Amino acid sequence: MTIARRLSEARPRLRWHAGRAVTDLVHRRAFGSLGSGTVIVRPHKLQGVERIHIGDGCSIFEDAWLASEPGGGELRIGDRTYLGHGVHLHALDPVTIGSDCVIADGAFVASSDHDRDDRHQVHGSGPITIGDRVFLGQRCVVLGGVTIGDGATVGAHAVVTRDVAPGQTVVGVPARPVGG
Questions:
Q1: Is residue 1 over pLDDT 80?
Q2: Which CATH number fits domain 3-175: 3.30.420.40, 2.160.10.10, 3.40.640.10, 2.30.40.10?
Q3: How far apart are CA 113 and CA 106, in angstroms?
Q4: What are the CA-CA distances from residue 66 to residues 23, 92, 100, 153, 163 (Å)?
Q5: Helix, strand, coil share of the chain (percent; to 5)
Q6: Average pLDDT, whole number, for the chain?
Q7: CA distance 46 to 29
Q8: Which of 74, 75, 69 lies closest to 87, judged by CA?
Q9: Per-residue pLDDT tens over the stretch 125-169
Q10: Catalytic residues
């Protein structure tokens, strides 16, 4: 293997190590709780961190947006959950994500909605509960008031507007079950 190829294919170790240092020195003191071994790499936005609780061994990659609105519900993420690049988690009503989940790049999970008369006003749209071992595909959307059961899979670009049963796979807009 050539040196050029090694450099080109190298993992982004510097960003990861910088993220680990910032997580340990800054985020660990600010968050409601932040588990051992969790690393947040160059987030886009962090808001209401005192109401955000993240378990052990989580990986949160570049441009993630984690927000708990003032006066709103908590955002809770279980152990060993992976948040890909550009994931946006927004809690006005409580948002709970289980352990061992994979939330792929660009996924959007929000328990809030904009008012129909004054679009600058937001209100809660119901709590969101995502079970353990759930996979949320790239750029999917999970709306308020939804529960996604353990081991479920949400396809890329799906819009989840109602509950998903444990182990079920859903795709489309709005998301509907597939398979048997």
A1: no
A2: 2.160.10.10
A3: 19
A4: 14, 12, 18, 22, 23
A5: 15, 35, 50
A6: 91
A7: 14
A8: 75
A9: 899 999 999 999 999 999 999 999 999 999 999 999 999 999 999
A10: 114
